[in-house]
Design brief:
Blueprint: H1 2-9, H2 14-33, E1 38-39, E2 46-47, H3 50-61, E3 66-67, E4 74-75, H4 78-88, E5 94-95, E6 102-103, H5 106-117, E7 122-123, E8 130-131, H6 134-145, E9 150-151, E10 158-159, H7 162-173, E11 178-179, E12 186-187, H8 190-201
Antiparallel strand pairs: 1-2, 3-4, 5-6, 7-8, 9-10, 11-12
Helix pairs in contact: 1-2
Organism: Araneus ventricosus (Orbweaver spider)
GO molecular function: sequence-specific double-stranded DNA binding; zinc ion binding
Family: Belongs to the krueppel C2H2-type zinc-finger protein family.
């Protein structure tokens, strides 16, 4: 610990090294003693380090000061921006050891691994059906609650799944984003494109 503090303090001018060493030591002592002197004024959550408390505060203020120069998407934390930039660079550093499929985010790799392990950790408390993804469980729960949180902005029709709402919107916009690679015919829904494609493969 002393060696780490000493190396860090050398980066500062001589007159600031003592203050820096004291701050580093105090921070280290707080973590070891499990003290959390930095308290969020909004929700009361406590932190051992001030930097973690400042980062947490952004969840209340919705401040997103880190902006992607490529697409303009904003993030509350620099680390999230760094991960996001990997999408534009097509970086996929997280590789499945079973099938070698690569992913941009580690969370996507963890979800993918369950296709190999058949792990289903998310269980419905109503009927007991288990799912490999949290999102799939949330979607399933709406079959019990009949909740329909997605609304069509044109006619007000409600849907339990966002995908169904997006598909419905195309009945208003007449958008047809799915095109046949063989003849160029376009469709509003991918299932219609798949059905059409069979006319070429017969």
């Amino acid at each position: 610990m002393e060696e780490t503090i000493s190396k860090h303090s050398l980066a500062h001018p001589k007159e600031k090294r003592v203050d820096c060493e004291m701050r580093e030591m105090n921070c280290h002592l707080c973590i070891n003693a499990k003290e959390k002197p930095h308290v969020c004024e909004v929700c009361g959550k406590a932190f051992a380090q001030r930097s973690n408390m400042v980062r947490h505060l952004r969840t209340h203020t919705k401040e997103k000061s880190y902006i992607c120069e490529v697409c303009g998407k904003a993030f509350a934390e620099r680390g999230n921006l760094t991960v996001h930039l990997g999408i534009h660079r097509n970086e996929k550093p997280y590789v499945c050891e079973v099938c070698c499929k690569a992913f941009t985010h580690i969370c996507n790799l963890k979800t993918h691994l369950r296709t190999h392990t058949k792990e289903t950790p998310y269980v419905c408390e109503v009927c007991g059906i288990a799912f490999s993804e949290r999102g799939s469980l949330a979607k399933h729960l709406r079959t019990h609650t009949n909740e329909k949180p997605y609304f069509c902005e044109v006619c007000g029709k409600a849907f339990s799944e966002r995908g169904n709402m997006v598909r419905h919107l195309r009945t208003h916009t007449k958008e047809k984003p799915f095109s046949c690679d063989v003849c160029g015919k376009v469709f509003a829904q991918i299932c219609h494109l798949k059905r059409h494609f069979r006319t070429h493969t017969k």
